[in-house]
Every structure is written in C-alpha cells, then in structure tokens.
Amino acid sequence: MILEISAACANSRGCEGGPDACLVFPAAIYVLTANRIHQVGIMKTPSFHPLLILLALLAGIVAILVAFSGDPGSEIGLFFSTGAEVAPIFLIALLAHLAYIRPRLRPFVALLTVVLLLALGALSWVLSLAPWITVVETDDLPLEMAMTLFVSLVLCMGAVFTCTLGFSSRIRRYISSYLPIDPENFVHTVGLVTVAGLALMPLIPLLVLGHAPLADLMADPDFALAALTPAEAAKTDFYGLLWMVVGSFIAVGFLVRRTLSDVLERLGVVVPTPKQVFFALGTGLLLVLIFTLIDHAILSVWNYFGWTVTDQHYMQALFSSYLTPVAAVMAAIVAGVGEELAIRGVLQPRFGIPLSVMVFASLHAYQYAWDGVLSVFLAGLVFALLRERTNTSVCAITHATYDLVLFGLLMAGIGWV
Fold first, then answer.
1. Which residue spans traverse the membrane (predicted)?
2. Parent domain of 254
C-alpha cells in the first residue's frame, strides 16, 4: 500500500538537506543576474523575477538553518523547518536554472549537487545503524554493527560515485538514448545526478538491515521520535504541501525560465473536467480493491519464503497521528497533490517512467520493508501509466482518493491493508 505521509517522520527532517545550502550567497547571485538583464534576452521576458528569486533562495536557506537548530520554537519556525525536506533540492534546481543565464555558476552548482549527494549518503549511512543508535558512542561496538557500518559506508560511497557519473557528457549521451534528456543541457545534468541519488540512497538502509530503519527508531525509547498529535500532523502536512508545490514549480524553471502558464503546462496541471473528476474518483476506489489483493499476494509470497515483512504494530504507531478525519484528509491531499506534482509532474516527463517510479518507491524505503516498497513501486507504475494517458491533475485526485479510502478503512477498524 502507499500511505506516503512525509510528516510521519517529521522529527527527523532536520537530517535531510545537509550543509550545502550554507554555501549559497543569494545576494551575490541577485546582483550578478540583475546586472545582466540588459545582456541576456531571457531576462527581458516575464518569466524572470530577480526579487522573487532572491526571496526563494533566502527562504530555502532559512528552512535548512531552522531545521538544523533542532527546535523550531514557533509557528514560523515549524513552517520553515518543514520546508527543509525539499529546500536543498529546489535551491539546487533554482541555481541550475540561473546557471543557464550565468554559466560561471555551473561549477558552484555542480559542487552543491555533490554536497547534496554526500548529505543523502550520510543520512542513509546513519539510518543503517538504527538498531544500534544508542550504542554508537561506546568503545565496544557489536560485531554485527561494525560489519553494517562498513558495508553501508561502502554502499553509500559507491552510490555517490555512481550518481556523479551523470556529470560525464559521454554517459549522458548514452542515457539520452533511453531517457528524454538533452545531454548538453546543464539543468538536465543536475537533475539526472540528483534524481539518481534520490533513487539509490534511501534503499541502502533497507538493503543492509532487511527492514525499515524507522521501525527501529520508533521502537527505541531513548530516541526522541515522538508521535505527532492529529492537529500537529495536519498542520505539518499543510506546511509541507506548500513547500512541495512551490518547490515543484521552481524545479521546472518558475521565476527564471518559465511563466506560470508554462509551468502548469510542463507539470501537466489542468482544471479537470467533471468527467475526469469522476474517472479519478472511480479509479481511486478501484485501486483500493486491486491493491488489497496485490498486498495480500505479496504478503503470501514473503511469508512463504520467510522474508521480513513490514511490521503491523509499527505501522499502527507510524500512522496513528492520521486516524482522524481532518488529519486523514490533509494527509491524503498532501500525498495526492504533493507527490504526484513532484513525481508525475516534475520527474516523469523528463526522466521517464522507470526512473521516476523508482524514486517514488525508494523514498518510502525508510518506513517500509521490501514488501511495502514493492507495493509502492507497483502503485507508482499505475499512477505513471495514468499520467501518460491523462494528466497530473487526474493522478492527484486518484492518489488522494486512494489514500483517503485507506485511512477511512483504518479508522473504521477494518484492518491494515
């Protein structure tokens, strides 16, 4: 199933993003780009907004800094810390689009992209140690932990190296035979490297542990990962949705290279017709039935071979904050609008179905075992095919309906599907 609720691990969001944003000097970028308005044609168009670009850069940096502070401390702090989950990515995307105008920025943006990869690798490496998180500072490390430490480090460094191969023009030309990218386009280059990192890094803890690392953290009484109240969950999800929408718009060139209408067209966002709305609602309901059967089939196979399955008690604790009508509706909207906008809107048209679906599944690997990741992958494949035949708006309604029905079933006590 795909109860993809980013706020389920809201208290760990400060780990994401890394220190890369601290390297950004937005005022200098603003001056450099503004001084070239008379030199570069694109800056004469309505798509370029220097002041808004500066504000976006500042907002992203503040989000990361507030998240690293550990305690948001206020409502504004909570808003910015929630944005730390997507801020590093949209900052790099924004700078990559600016590098289209100012080529001298390209080495700097490439460096930030590598820093982001290292941060993702560090996060996955730390999460690989989740079962021993309370003993990492002791002198006498368990042998199993030491082995996991070494294996996960090798895998993380290997993943970072693999992702950086996307900077090679020869490799990009080869990949362009299979993906709709322009091997000479710097924005596509940065996107390819970043997307590869998002597809590979989150799988490493699951690969070395065999189960969701978040399950260990939630089961550890010494680790501060308290459950959110339903009101907190709904509020955090709402803030996260705002950041996700703005980040998706910026990722495809808003403020720099595309107008709002161009962005909506690129993302596949339209005002759905009544027929499309009813189709999406019906498809969402149908998918609940289909994936109930698929999940039971996957579970049967996993049990037959004795493989680790996603623990149901852990799942109840993970999603307990969302079992109220308001929190469930907000979570479903976030999953439907936010995730579909980012995955099916931003990634799929540029990087194709397989890679975008892999990212979609991989981002759930921190909270599911392999059975859950497989189910998410299959669901992502369905949404991807739906996007090919319709648009992102239909996918968002379908996805939100699917999740909302699942939450409704859970609140009714019918069971964890």
1. 51-70, 76-101, 108-133, 145-165, 186-208, 238-256, 277-302, 314-334, 341-362, 368-386, 393-416
2. 6-411
